[in-house]
Amino acid sequence: MNEQLQPLKKQPRAGKAGRSGTQDDIVYAHIFEAILEQRLAPGTKLSEEALGEIFGVSRTIIRRALSRLAHEGVVLLRPNRGAVVASPSVEEARQVFMARRLVERAITELAVQHATAEQIAELRQMVNDERDSFSRGDRGAGIRLSGEFHLKLAEAAKNAPLISFQRSLVSQTSLIIAQYESGNRSHCSYDEHTQLIDAIEKRDAELAVNLMMHHMDHIDSKLNLDEESASDDLHAVFSHLLQTKKPGRSPAKI
Amino acid sequence: MNEQLQPLKKQPRAGKAGRSGTQDDIVYAHIFEAILEQRLAPGTKLSEEALGEIFGVSRTIIRRALSRLAHEGVVLLRPNRGAVVASPSVEEARQVFMARRLVERAITELAVQHATAEQIAELRQMVNDERDSFSRGDRGAGIRLSGEFHLKLAEAAKNAPLISFQRSLVSQTSLIIAQYESGNRSHCSYDEHTQLIDAIEKRDAELAVNLMMHHMDHIDSKLNLDEESASDDLHAVFSHLLQTKKPGRSPAKI
DNA sequence: CCACCCTCCATTGTGTACAATCGCAGTGTT
DNA sequence: AACACTGCGATTGTACACAATGGAGGGTGG
Lengths: 254, 254
Hints:
CATH topology of the largest domain in chain A: Four Helix Bundle (Hemerythrin (Met), subunit A)
Order of helices and strands of chain A: HEHHEEHHHHHHH
Strand content of chain A: under 5%
Number of strands of chain A: 3
Organism (chains A, B): Pseudomonas jessenii
InterPro entries (chains A, B): GntR_C, TF_FadR/GntR_C, Tscrpt_reg_HTH_GntR, WH-like_DNA-bd_sf, WH_DNA-bd_sf
Keywords (chains A, B): DNA-binding, Transcription, Transcription regulation
GO molecular function, one term (chains A, B): DNA binding
Distance between the termini of chain A: 35 Å
Largest sheet of chain A: 3 strands, antiparallel
Structural class of chain A: mainly alpha
CATH architecture of the largest domain in chain A: Up-down Bundle
Radius of gyration of chain A: 20 Å
CATH superfamily of the largest domain in chain A: GntR ligand-binding domain-like
Largest interface: A-B, 24 and 25 residues
Number of domains of chain A: 2
CATH class of the largest domain in chain A: Mainly Alpha
Protein name (chains A, B): DNA-binding transcriptional regulator, GntR family
Low-confidence stretches of chain A: 1-20, 228-254
Mean pLDDT of chain A: 81
Number of helices of chain A: 10
Oligomer: homodimer
């Protein structure tokens, strides 16, 4: 319980996910990354004091980071009860995916119009990084980089509200993938990302949109969202305990 | 400087925009409403201490409310410099409107599928309130209610991420309308809202979407987004002071 | 007279103490 | 034995004190 990172007071940019300036960004990034890499399982309680001790900052900072994570839907903030890692239900996952299809289509069309050569180069670089991560077997980094690819694409679309929305959707998607992805398959084949970049570079809007939609299909076909897997329905979860002897109210309380 | 609202400690729901429980919601709602009603002009500085004194709470609460407003794009939060009422540029306004078209189309289609009779009744009630506000000449309340109508519609679409995004877009749109709307015309003709509800009730998706798109057209056609109106360009703003005698640099300081 | 710098003040950023709240366990009652 | 109630412990919610930053104004030197 006494371990603590270096106070991270002003180190310009720390380890892996260390972003720009302020402390909350660092805390935010570290927690987010831990969630994506499944070092923090859905439902895990995120105590302010414990986190504060770990990162060497006060609860004030932690609180801001948690608030931001909650706003993006990665963390659930229950009043007076503290924060837990969100555990999206199948229904919530469906809603996120529906919204993403909508946004990704628009983003793709806009990116075809506005992406600069420089941005396209950056996108290619990101795909490389992503491939490296997967070949190293670093699944968490792979999921994260794959998300950052889609976020970068949103930036190429040059529409601030869409970028902000996409950030939230990508975060939640990453969490959903971490939670629901079946087996060990690489979830976001970088090959599709490459093809997509090619289409954008050729300014072929129709092709790019088609590729993106197929990409979306692939992503959610790899998830076990089809009625099975972890359910919120207590009856379903404990159905093996339910004896079908009498249809009375006996199983009502576990 | 000494005036202060009643401490608003635990009054279940105060005045006009008083929402659910906690204090930040109240502060948030009051500031937001003040911005919409143009009692707070774009660019106005929002000092934490001053607001804290006005609402009778500590800076902590104010800070949270401001942070939330900033996240919705209604307030601009400059590090170490404090918060100001956002003053969206023409370009930003365009981006918001583009995103709104996208979202409203999806919301309309989903609402046609999922809206319950009860929700439709609520929507009709909101249109009535909106009409009342405008006939009373209460422009601020009108803009706000009109926004809430679109938000209610989003709720009928039953997609949490879309609702959240729509909330942010509606907030920003309201600010833009307050800032750019030409003259005294009612900006969001409740008539169009009524027609839209009718189409949704008849489950006519195509008609509903068409009406919504026309509605969007109307809204931004009423705005002076076409290069003119309140500009960021100081030279343009103060052009009436510029004497065309000499093209020297004399007018550089007012 | 203008430009630069330096000090001071106002305001925000952060840490921490105290208060309020919730969940849980122990106890008593039916 | 099961339920309800009450007190306790732990954790979050709020306020406030102090530190740090940025801007404005005055002063000095060129």
